[in-house]
Amino acid sequence: MRAARVTRLDGPEAIEVGEVDEPTGDGIVVEVHAAGAAFPDALLTRGLYQYRPDPPFVLGAEIAGVVRSAPDGAHVQPGDRVVGLTMLSGGMAEVAVLSPDRAFKLPDNVSFEAGAGLLFNDLTMYFALTVRGRLQQGETLLVHGAAGGIGTSTLRLAPALGASRTIAVVSSEEKAQIATAAGATDVVLADGFKDAVKELTGGRGVDMVVDPVGGDRFTDSLRSLVAGGRLLVIGFTGGEIPTVKVNRLLLNNIDVVGVGWGAWAGTHPGALEEQWAGLERLLSSGELAAPQPEVYPLDQAAAAVASMENRTAKGKVVLRVR
Asked: What molecular function does GO assign, one term (predicted)?
């Protein structure tokens, strides 16, 4: 089969697409039609992620495709359209093997490319908004990195879960268009976002900040919260891990909330199935629009992963495998 492999830990340019043996082992065998790319893939190419396989290894943690075979008693059968999580490699290939508890039926109204763009980001943000963020009806969100995968997922999901307003923070006018297309109510530039948010909200501020970026905007994000507001720490694509003076939390009764979706799923049996059930209901009913990812052919896997690292990705990035 053809697959995208990391051959040395020199960054995305070390990804090579070529022929490898099909995977073996028990589980659900899937003929992969599309595979998602995510920021951890870029880290893996440099040996900077907490999971550090030795090269060569096949990248890719999220897939969409058709079941070739399944164990007796599995909840999916040969021929079923599915999405699934490999956790954390093996997905950018023509065939992948999934654990039965990490394969989910794909609604008929969602394409393979959109399906491959659902899992990491939408499951993360469904968990972030409902469990960790305690999103309430009518609340206002501020979304950093709003043109990226996590950002566009938040802009799609938050209204379906009850938010009344989403303010997107972007670094350029081009990215503003992406955020608007994803459903942002308002868009502001990162430079001076605190004052822009204050003006947009009539001085009130926002109920929740979604921050996958980190860096030097963290303090101004805290200042943008209403009393009792929550800042969700999703990641650090900006590179720098910020620090917080905890007196700021005390003075306004605000929360800084860590969102470790993978760690939660690994320690809470049934969490993935519960999260997917919620997403599947929203997708099937049309309350939640499927993502419209930026699609690369498998041969351009290196460029797709590089766009995660250099922050040129426009929304979710997906590889078309078949």
From this structure: oxidoreductase activity
